[in-house]
Design brief:
The chain is of the alpha+beta class and about 375 residues long. It has 10 helices and 7 strands. The chain has 2 domains: about 290 residues, CorA soluble domain-like (Beta Polymerase, domain 2, 2-Layer Sandwich); about 60 residues, Up-down Bundle (Methane Monooxygenase Hydroxylase, Chain G, domain 1), CATH 1.20.58.
Length: about 375
């Protein structure tokens, strides 16, 4: 029975094919919706310099800008992107349909927009999965208003915002003393700081692989490991590189929603993301060098095998020549009918290769 091309590729390495499709076939206009959507989890933080509170029982109908006290700041965190809930919140606070579409599309490129006096941006949180040694991402969308910030994320288990929540409980922190734009900075800074943790995990994998190959402990799976790391670095670059443009657009933005005094904090994130991208480029170069080292070792081993086979062939050549000479169909051949002819021919077949072996050794050919 003939195997189809698709099935054949899956038999080669199905996990690698799925990873490649995830990296190369991301269409931001297509939002895969599960058959049964879970309900969104809403958490509203209300704070100022004197007080801070958290409300986990708020509903999407209660999210109205008109109900927000202008003397306080609000942070609404939405976990699990339920389509109906997101659309209702967007309608209540006056979000443009394009922004709602970006929030529900989970493969958006990091970017920022300002529509209808609301500043929005999209970024990806990155995690390193120790079990699969791969990078996983989660899209986070931000909507910044005059005195409120709304965050949308689809994963209700993993979260990088716990330190920011802890700071909201302390009155002396800058998160409590500054506006909602500083809260946006704090959350973006937590996401970018996670990039360095992911890069450290990749660095450990790269160093281990480089050490194994340098010591000659590489095997047939080393090239697969190299290719996997290259894909992870490419996946990281695809998510982290546009963040530089995102931070640059925030710094250059003339929106009144971001105060001038907080602009320097976003510049700090800009410096961090440049450093992260530089590290990513460095790791990509290292992976390329490791691949070249591995291929050089494979070629060296191949050359050693070919050298050994060439020496064996050369040592067997005299026996072949001598055997061929005495096997010719002539009536008269010297010592052909000699009673010691067999031993003479055998001695020549042994003595000549031994002489050749010493000659090769003197020439340092092996």
């Amino acid at each position: 029975m003939r195997t189809s091309k698709k099935n054949y590729l899956q038999l080669i390495n199905p996990l690698e094919i799925l990873r490649t499709k995830k990296i190369l076939q991301n269409n931001p206009t297509v939002s895969p919706i599960p058959p049964v959507q879970q309900e969104s989890i809403l958490s509203l933080y209300e704070y100022d310099q004197a007080h801070s509170s958290r409300n986990d029982s708020i509903s999407s109908d209660e999210v109205l800008v008109s109900l927000f006290d202008s003397n306080k700041y609000y942070w609404l965190n939405v976990d699990i992107l339920n389509t109906q809930t997101i659309e209702k919140i967007g309608k209540n606070i006056g979000l443009h349909p394009l922004i709602v579409e970006d929030i529900l599309s989970k493969n958006q490129r990091p970017k920022s927009d300002e529509i209808d006096n609301l500043f929005t941006c999209v970024i990806h949180m990155l995690y390193f999965n120790e079990e699969t040694t791969s990078i996983e991402s989660e899209q986070v969308s931000f909507v910044l208003g005059k005195n409120f910030l709304i965050t949308f994320q689809d994963d209700c288990i993993r979260d990088l915002f716990a330190p920011v929540r802890d700071k909201l409980k302390i009155a002396a922190t800058k998160v409590r003393q500054h506006g909602a734009d500083y809260l946006l900075y704090a959350l973006l800074d937590a996401i970018v700081d996670q990039y360095f943790i992911v890069l450290d995990k990749l660095a450990v994998q790269i160093e281990k692989l480089e050490e194994d190959i340098s010591r000659g402990n590489s095997d047939t799976y080393s090239m697969n490991h190299i290719n996997d790391l290259r894909k992870e670095i490419m996946f990281f670059k695809r998510n982290a590189h546009p963040v530089r443009e995102l931070m640059g657009s925030i710094i250059r933005s003339e929106t009144a929603l971001i105060e001038e005094r907080n602009n320097k904090y976003f510049k700090d994130i800009f410096d961090h993301i440049i450093q992260a991208n530089d590290l990513c480029e460095t790791y990509r170069d290292v992976i390329t060098n490791i691949r070249d080292l591995y291929l050089s070792q494979v070629n060296l081993k191949t050359n050693e095998v070919m050298k050994f086979l060439a020496i064996v062939t050369a040592l067997l050549a005299p026996a072949t020549v001598i055997g061929g000479m005495f096997g010719m169909n002539f009536d008269r051949i010297p010592i052909l009918h000699n009673q010691n002819g067999f031993w003479i021919a055998t001695s020549l077949m042994i003595i000549v290769p031994i002489f050749m072996l010493f000659y090769f050794k003197r020439k340092n050919w092996f």
